Each structure stands twice: as C-alpha cells, then as structure tokens.
C-alpha cells in the first residue's frame, strides 16, 4: 500500500543560498486546491512540453495525477516554487516517465538545480515506497528536443539545469533517440515478396520470440533491463507492456515467416495515447543481415494504414540503431525530432 499523503511530505531547508535566511520549503504531492497556483507555472519552453492546457487535459485522463505531481512550496507564502510532473498510463498504479520539471521565476538561478533535484528525489522515493517491497527503478526522464538541439542555445540553456537536477536525483545515464513520423502520403508499402505474416493467439510464442531477439539486439533499453532481470523475465515484461498497457489491439500482432515457413521475426503494430506507433519489431539473430526488418516494418505500416485507418504513424529508434533508422527512412519516415532519455545506471 502506498504511504499516506501526510507521510510523504518532506522539508528542504535552504542554506548558504540567495533565498531569505532560514526559509523553509515543504516538498509534497499536489492536492487539487493547489491547481490555481500551479498551472501558471506550466509554460512551454524548449526543453519542457508542460503547459496549463496539456496538464489539465492529461489530468482529466488520469495520465497525470495528484500523487504523481510533486511540489516545492514556500512555507511563508504558500506559493509553489517548483513542480515535477510524472506521466503514467490510466491503467497503471505507478508512473512510467517523468514528463518535466519547472521552477518559479521567483527562484534564484543559484537555487534552481538544488530545488528541482530535491523535488525529483522526493517523488522517486515516494514511488519506491509504494512498490510494496518490489525493487523499482526511478521512472525515466523523457525530454523532446529538435534534431539540431546542440546548435540551439535556447534549447541548451533550457536543458542544462534540468539535466543537472536529474543527475543529482540519480538519472545520470543518457540515451538519445531519433523520432520518426510516417503518413500514407509517403506511399503505402506493397506486400512483402519474401515473407508472409500470421496472427498468433499464443502469448507464449511471442514471449519466446521476445527473449530470442534480445541476443545482440541494438535495442538499448530492453538489453539493459534483461541484464538485470534476465532475458525470460524481460521478454514477459515487454509482452505484458504491449498487451496490457499500450492501446493497440492484440489482434494486430504478427509472426513473420519465410518461404519455407520458418519464423524469422515478428511485429507489433500498436498505439499510445498520442498516436499509432510501430510498437515493436524483431528479427531472430540467425536471420539478421537479410533486410527482413524492412519487410516487417512495411507490414506494420500496411496493418495500421489499411486495416486500422491510421493517418499518421510514429516511431523512435536509438541513435546507435543505424539499421533500423535506415529501414524507416526507406519506408518514408521523416526524422522530425529527438528524444533524450535520462535514467538511473
């Protein structure tokens, strides 16, 4: 059972800073009576998608929740000085990602990082305490930036203090991902001439395929998790995520077979709260190097465009996953942005 609200409140006393001597800031989850004071702080900037409008929309959808929104509040005035917002699926009991952290203009630059880091740590500790004895890594911090973000001083400036705050809160590992978008105007792929695609009702078959494709995979996140929990456990976690958390239909999943009827890989067309997505595709290690990833990707697009009626499909791939990026560009995907993912080592 998660701790009671009052048990989560902590205090952070600033020392040797430009804040008034002895000022005390209480760090706690949001209560709905805070909203009128918090929403004006939520203003989009080059490293944060948070806005009052988007927060209210996701709050109503239970993707943002009071217990997933943490504040630093000035005890003297009652004004919020910092806000950290975690996102999660409406069906989940714990947040899946940190969406952003903002500070009030009243916070001196010298205190911004310390305050933001304290809010992040408080939220992470509360989520861990609510895990009912299970080890839980802190949610990753996802930041969406332009592809040329390193050449944009305003983006770098908006990132710098947040990255340092995240590092102090334990989110020190960076994974950079390419964000792609496809529309039917790019051309719906023709059916594969080499592979056939088949529904598979048995989840155990897909669990085995998930485990098999982890070998020498360029999917950093799955490989990292598998190194901690083992390939079989990670395979089941991936399967359950796409079946139970993502919004795509189980009936969209396909096994890919070659002309001899041998399984060479699989594809999971899917959907998240914002868009239809490629989801997951994998090629078995013994069949790599033949371009099958492109065939499976094409079939995913055909299912989403022709059977589901998707007008846009998105997909991310790790910056280091050059073969997948090349396959997406051949299929007509356009790289429109990057995602920076900060996680605990």
How is this structure best described in words?
By secondary structure, this protein is of the alpha+beta class. The protein has two domains: 5-171, Gcn5-related N-acetyltransferase (GNAT) (Aminopeptidase, 3-Layer(aba) Sandwich), CATH 3.40.630; 182-339, Aminopeptidase, CATH 3.40.630. It contains ten helices and 13 strands. The protein has helices spanning 5-8, 35-38, 52-60, 109-129, 153-168, 203-213, 220-229, 231-245, 292-308, 322-330, and strands at residues 10-13, 24-29, 69-74, 80-87, 97-103, 140-145, 173-182, 196-198, 254-257, 263-271, 276-283, 313-318, 334-343. The protein has a 13-stranded mixed β-sheet with strand order 1-2-3-4-5-6-13-7-12-11-10-9-8, sandwiched between helices. A hairpin with a 5-residue loop joins β9 (254-257) and β10. α4 (109-129) packs across α5 and α6 (203-213) crosses α8 (231-245). It is elongated, with a radius of gyration of 22 Å. It starts with a helix and ends with a strand. Residues 1-22 have low confidence and may be disordered.
């Amino acid at each position: 059972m998660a701790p009671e609200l009052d048990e989560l409140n902590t205090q952070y006393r600033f020392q040797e800073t430009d804040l008034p001597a002895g000022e005390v800031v209480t760090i706690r989850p949001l209560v709905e009576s805070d909203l009128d004071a918090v929403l004006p702080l939520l203003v989009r900037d080059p490293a944060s998608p948070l806005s009052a409008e988007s927060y209210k929309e996701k709050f109503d959808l239970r993707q943002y929740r009071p217990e997933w929104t943490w504040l630093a509040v000035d005890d003297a005035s009652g004004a919020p000085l910092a806000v950290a917002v975690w996102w999660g699926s409406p069906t989940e009991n714990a947040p899946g990602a940190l969406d952003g952290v903002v500070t009030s203009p009243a916070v001196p630059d010298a205190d911004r990082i310390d305050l933001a880091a304290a809010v992040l740590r408080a939220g992470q500790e509360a989520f861990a305490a609510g895990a009912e004895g299970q080890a839980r890594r802190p949610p990753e911090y996802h930041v969406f930036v332009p592809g040329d973000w390193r050449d944009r001083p305003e983006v770098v400036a908006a990132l710098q203090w947040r990255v340092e705050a995240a590092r102090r809160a334990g989110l020190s590992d960076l994974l950079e991902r390419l964000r792609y978008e496809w529309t039917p105007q790019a051309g719906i792929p023709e059916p594969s001439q080499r592979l056939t695609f088949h529904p598979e009702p048995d989840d155990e078959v897909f669990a085995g395929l998930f485990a098999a494709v982890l070998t020498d995979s360029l999917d950093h996140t799955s490989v990292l998790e598998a190194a901690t929990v083992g390939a079989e456990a990670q395979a089941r976690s991936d399967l359950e995520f796409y079946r139970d958390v993502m919004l795509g239909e189980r009936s969209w999943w396909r096994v890919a077979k070659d002309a001899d009827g041998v399984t060479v890989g699989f594809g999971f067309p899917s959907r998240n709260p914002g868009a239809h997505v490629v989801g997951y595709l994998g090629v078995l290690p013994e069949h790599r190097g033949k371009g099958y990833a492109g065939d499976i990707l094409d079939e995913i697009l055909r299912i989403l465009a022709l059977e589901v009626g998707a007008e846009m499909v998105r997909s991310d791939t790790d910056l280091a996953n050059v073969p997948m990026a090349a396959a997406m560009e051949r299929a007509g995907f356009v790289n429109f942005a990057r995602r920076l993912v900060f996680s605990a080592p």
